[in-house]
Design brief:
Blueprint: H1 3-10, H2 12-20, H3 22-29, H4 34-60, H5 65-92, H6 103-118, H7 121-145, H8 153-160, H9 162-181, H10 184-209
Bound molecules: 4-amino-5-hydroxymethyl-2-methylpyrimidine.
4-amino-5-hydroxymethyl-2-methylpyrimidine binds at residues 44, 47-48, 131, 135, 201, 204.
């Protein structure tokens, strides 16, 4: 079985919970409170800044310059998406939040940064896969069932769109090659990393929905 098929099956219950989460259900119908969306966009800008770093670091752990280039391009794109958030949503919604990372965002970004630095290249890449693939599947599912007009149309279009799809396809192909070449023990750790990041995707959405703050 292809690595990506294996992990998709392994994390299917997590994906289904993500899709059913009220954040995504309300995004789909447009009923999501704007204050919740603002909180999410702010947290996502903090996420994307670290996601870019994790991608770049993972790239430096590869053994070919082709792979390094691929991951540097992913990193560049994450930075450009982060900037676009500021130019569009931050301006449109007058987001002036300064609270920093909520616990959910903190957990996810630090997991990605730690994996990229301290895990093997293959495991680091597997940890980064849900950021692409789960977002793509969620974007597509929302796009296919959304209420129109929808105040969050730009967000939906970005993740259901062609440009993001190209990056996701490249990442999936990369993961399948790495999974195929990996020893059984490395492959098992790759599956574990994919699962952990999938759970953290859920945690991130749930944190945004609750506008999570630090308890102390
Ligand atoms: C939390 C999160 N995961 C994945 C993506 C897509 O890269 C994003 N923008 N935010």
């Amino acid at each position: 079985m292809k690595f990506t098929e294996q992990v998709w099956n392994a994390a299917l219950p997590v994906y289904e919970k993500i899709l059913a989460h009220p954040f995504n259900q309300e995004l789909k119908t447009g009923a999501l409170p704007v204050e919740t969306f603002k909180f999410y966009i702010y947290q996502d800008s903090l996420y994307l800044a670290d996601f870019a770093r994790a991608l770049a670091v993972a790239g430096t752990r590869s053994s070919t310059s082709g792979e390094l280039l691929e991951f540097l391009q992913f990193a560049q794109n994450a930075i450009l998406v982060e900037r676009a958030l500021h130019e569009s949503y931050f301006a449109e919604y007058k987001i002036e939040l300064t609270s920093g990372k909520a616990p959910g965002c903190f957990a996810y970004t630090n997991y990605l940064l730690a994996s990229s630095a301290y895990e093997s290249y293959e495991v680091a890449v597997a940890a980064l896969l849900p950021c692409f693939w789960i977002y793509k599947r969620v974007g597509d599912a929302i796009y296919a069932n959304q209420t129109t007009p929808n105040p969050y149309q730009n967000w939906i279009d970005a993740y259901a769109g062609e440009e993001f799809a190209v990056a996701v396809t490249r990442m999936l192909a990369r993961c399948d090659r790495l999974g195929e070449q990996a020893s059984e023990s490395v492959r098992n750790r790759m599956v574990e990393a994919y699962l952990t990041s999938s759970r953290l995707e859920y945690v991130f959405w749930d944190s945004a929905y609750r506008r999570e703050t630090w308890p102390v």
